[in-house]
Structure formats: structure tokens, C-alpha cells
Amino acid sequence: MRTRPKLILELDKPTAVKFLYDQPRAGEGPYGPWYAYTVESGGTEYIFFTAPQLHHLLQQLGVQKGTQVTLTRRAVEQTGKTDFYHTVTIGERTFSTKEEVPLEAAQAARAEMAPPPELSPDFFGLMGQCLQESLNAWKRLGIEFNSDNVQGIASTLFIQLCNRGFRRPVELGQEEAEQKG
Questions:
Q1: If we measure between CA atoms, which residue out of 98, 100, 76 comes closest to residue 87?
Q2: I need a surface site. Which of 17, 84, 92, 175 has the fewest CB within 10 A?
């Protein structure tokens, strides 16, 4: 069995991690239940032990294999005692183990973390559709344009679609489908 180092979060230092399995290992120890996630951070695989509160938050948010989040260990002073908690950041949203996550926020976070569809070999078709959309946009603008303008916008569309995980040909709009059919 492979031994991985433990990931220890430094106080107030955000740490980007990627979950390598859908579910953690779980057990019961002298201090109560524990959960061990296998994560990757900075190109190294770690075992990351969580308290029940952080595990509950991660489950609410729907972390699974391939999910990438930023974890931060925090502390707050309350009546002379230091209370530790964690935050989980997904995109622009940050969730805390100190607060219950509203259902709508958890659903939005799950949708944001959903893995992109499988890579399609039809990049040629996607680029052709981006060129067509760019040409249509220039025509609708009603200003003078040339092939460089069309190609520039098409390349930008193509890159943005790929960066956002869109991996299959763009569906034709109703008008275009009727024109072709």
C-alpha cells in the first residue's frame, strides 16, 4: 500500500486541492469519527484528514473525484478560547464550517464543479460553427468587416468554449436549423 504524506493546512493560508476519489475513507478514533480524503496539491498527492464538520460541508457541496477547491484553516477568538474552523472556496463562492450552507448555494456550487463533458474529437466542427456564429454576428452589427475580423472573433469563441469545458459541437439555433433543413 502506498504511503502519502498528510496535508496539514497552515492557518489563514489558502491551499488549492483536487480530490482524487469520490469518497473518503472513514473510521472511528479515540477523539471521534475521522474522514481521510486523498487529494493533490501542488503536484503532490496527500492524505487529508477532516473533522466531521468539514466532511459534512464537503459532502453538502458534492465534492467528487476531480473536484478542485481552495481550503483555508481559520481561527477566531471567543471568550479567551481559540475556535478553529475551515472555509471552502469554489470559484467566487466561499463556504464555512461555522454556517449551514443554504440548499440553493450548495446546488449552485455542485453545478459549478460538475466535470466537463467528455472531450469530443469534433474540434473541426466546433471551429466551423464558431466561424459561422462570428460571421452572423458581424452581419447583424451592420458594420464593415473583413475575414480577419471574422476569424479573430471565431478564435476567441472557440478558445472560450474550450476553456469553459464545452467539448461538443455547438447546437444550432432554431433559425439556423430551419434554414438548413
A1: 98
A2: 92
- Within 8 A by CB and 6+ apart from 113, the residues are 61, 62, 63, 64, 67, 68, 69, 90
What is the model's pLDDT at position 176?
Answer: 46
Least confident segment among 21-25, 47-51, 79-83: 79-83
Q: How far apart are CA 150 and CA 83, in angstroms?
A: 57
What's the rounded Cα separation, in Å, for the pair 131 and 137? 10
> What is the reported pTM?
0.58
Task: Give the number of residues written for the chain.
Answer: 181
Distances (CA, A) of 160 to 136, 146, 148: 18, 22, 18
* Cβ count within 10 A of residue 129: 20
Query: Measuring CA to CA, which residue among 17, 75, 81 is closest to residue 49?
Result: 17
Three-state SS at 180:
helix
Cell 473518503, residue? Answer: 24
